[in-house]
Design goal:
Layout lengths: L13 H8 L7 H9 L9 E2 H11 L7 H12 L4 E5 L20 E4 L2 E5 L5 H6 L7 E4 L2 H11 L9 E6 L6 H4 L10 E6 L17 E6 L4 E3 L12 E6 L5 E4 L12 E5 L1 E2 L4 H4 L8 E5 L4 H4 L6 H4 L5 E5 L19 E5 L19 E5 L19 E3 L21 E3 L21 E3 L2 H8 L7 E3 L13
Parallel strand pairs: 6-7, 7-8, 8-10, 9-11, 10-12, 11-13, 12-14, 14-15, 15-16, 16-17, 17-18, 18-19, 19-20, 20-21
Antiparallel strand pairs: 1-5, 2-4, 2-5, 3-4
Helix pairs in contact: 2-4
């Protein structure tokens, strides 16, 4: 009866609580904080590892490449506090991005819309070898463990908690939120989850100390960002995720323009309004933007948008599954401080502009599974600091630029499933710093025709899973 009133099982089953808390005993303070942060995400949903890396890099000053974050997740996994999973794409052959030590995959299950594989051992070495690519890596957590994370975060009065977690169902707000006199909340992390019934009629909230805001919702129409975001002067990380069946248009986008200390933005399954340039001001501290399953083409290709002026210090862009991206926005080529550019699973993208050669500070260029991409522009030769190039799954690419040798810092080249590639330019022999090529057997033969002294050619084992055919 108590559980039917929305109370936690721990209110009536202290033995369950005591048993689960034993798993927390061996964690250090930072790992305990990371565990409690998992309660910020909705029940029964995959948690993107990249979202955790972004949050922890700012809150706990962990490295931005994710090595320390992966180490913490591995510790939580070893204590049976979560599952680490890597998704495959529609049942197609998949390579585990974390190395051969993670290939013994005995437990398989279907999560959300993509096949997932439990990773039995995920180490710091695996994390460093992934070049910061965790787009297909997720955390899954049992409901009881999520309840434990929320319970551990709720030991103080609401106004004094470090994390405030609000689950709004059927458009019902907590009584304290609708009262005339609002309590001043000291939380550094704020999570608000809502269902299809939520009307986006926000009340005011005093949360001046919030550094990470996570908005989770389910809708196929519009979602209005809350006005109280205007007061979040300390906000560094914004994560907006739609768990509905299609992209929802974000309304009241202008509130983001007031977040002068914002460093990382992640949008998932939302439509960025074409009026982006009218509603944004300079976000001088913004360093990273992640766009997953979003509609972005109209906003980013608007002739009036001045991307360099809006994001003068942007160093990283991740675009994944944005299927309306037809051409790469020219304005992005003027982000001269950009170090990492990742575009994956954008199946309508057919070409990159010559202007990409202006990104003189670019260190990583990932063009993963852009199936209509026909090739790389010759101007790529100007990317003298490029260390990692990934064209995996770009099977329409027939040749590489002739002057590949001018990529004088290139260390790693990923080119699996590039079956359209029939030859390599002669200049590849002069890639003096190239140490590793990851490819298929056929492409490996092309590299073996060139007498490299210290080049490692890696042909990863694939996970072939046909269980998806049953569904």
């Amino acid at each position: 009866m108590e559980l039917s009133k929305g109370q936690s099982i721990f209110d009536s089953e202290k033995r369950v609580l005591d048993c689960l808390q034993l798993s927390l005993a061996s964690l250090d303070d930072e790992q305990k904080e990371c565990f409690m942060d998992l309660g910020l995400f909705p029940e029964d949903q995959k948690i993107p590892v990249t979202a955790l890396i972004d949050m922890w890099a700012e809150l706990y000053k962990l490295d931005k490449n994710g090595v320390q974050a992966i180490s913490n997740l591995h510790k939580l996994f070893s204590q049976n506090l979560l599952n680490l999973v890597v998704t495959s794409r529609g049942g197609l052959p998949t390579t585990n991005p974390f190395g051969p030590r993670c290939m013994d995959l005995s437990t398989r299950f279907l999560a959300s819309k993509r096949r997932c594989f439990v990773v039995p051992r995920w180490t710091r070495k695996d994390a460093s070898e992934a070049d910061g690519c965790y787009d297909d890596a997720f955390v899954l957590q049992h409901d009881l463990l999520r309840d434990l994370a929320i319970h551990q975060s709720s030991q103080k009065p609401m106004e004094e908690r470090k994390r405030l977690i609000l689950d709004l169902t059927e458009n019902k707000l907590p009584e304290w939120w609708t009262e005339g006199k609002q309590p001043c909340i000291e939380a550094r992390l704020l999570s608000i989850s809502s269902d299809q019934m939520f009307s986006s009629n926000w009340c005011n909230m005093q949360v001046p100390e919030v550094e990470a805001l996570i908005l989770n919702f389910q809708t196929t129409e519009n979602y209005t960002l809350p006005n109280f975001m205007n007061q979040m002067e300390n906000l560094k990380v914004l994560t907006v995720t739609n768990y509905g069946s299609s992209a929802a248009e974000l309304m009241n986008f202008s509130v983001i323009g007031s977040l002068s200390n914002l460093k990382r933005i992640r949008f998932e399954q939302v439509s960025i309004p074409p009026s982006l340039c009218d509603s944004m001001v300079e976000l001088k501290n913004l360093q990273k933007i992640s766009l997953v399953m979003c509609k972005i083409n109209q906003a980013l290709t608007s002739s009036s948008i001045q991307i360099p002026n809006m994001f003068p210090n942007l160093t990283e862009i991740n675009i994944d599954y944005c299927n309306d991206l037809v051409r790469f926005p020219d304005g992005l080529c003027d982000l001269l401080l950009l170090k990492k550019l990742s575009i994956s699973n954008c199946h309508k993208l057919s070409a990159l502009p010559e202007g990409i050669g202006k990104l003189e500070n670019l260190e990583l260029l990932r063009l993963h599974t852009c199936t209509k991409l026909l090739g790389l522009p010759d101007s790529i030769r100007n990317l003298h600091r490029l260390a990692v190039l990934d064209i995996t799954g770009c099977f329409r690419v027939k040749k590489l630029p002739k002057r590949m040798d001018e990529l004088c810092s290139l260390r790693k080249l990923y080119m699996r499933k590039c079956r359209g590639l029939r030859e390599l330019p002669a200049s590849v022999i002069d890639l003096k710093k190239l140490k590793k090529v990851v490819c298929d057997t056929e492409t490996a033969q092309l590299w073996e025709e060139h007498p490299f002294a210290n080049l490692k050619i890696s042909i990863p084992e694939e996970i072939i899973d046909l269980n998806w055919l049953e569904s």
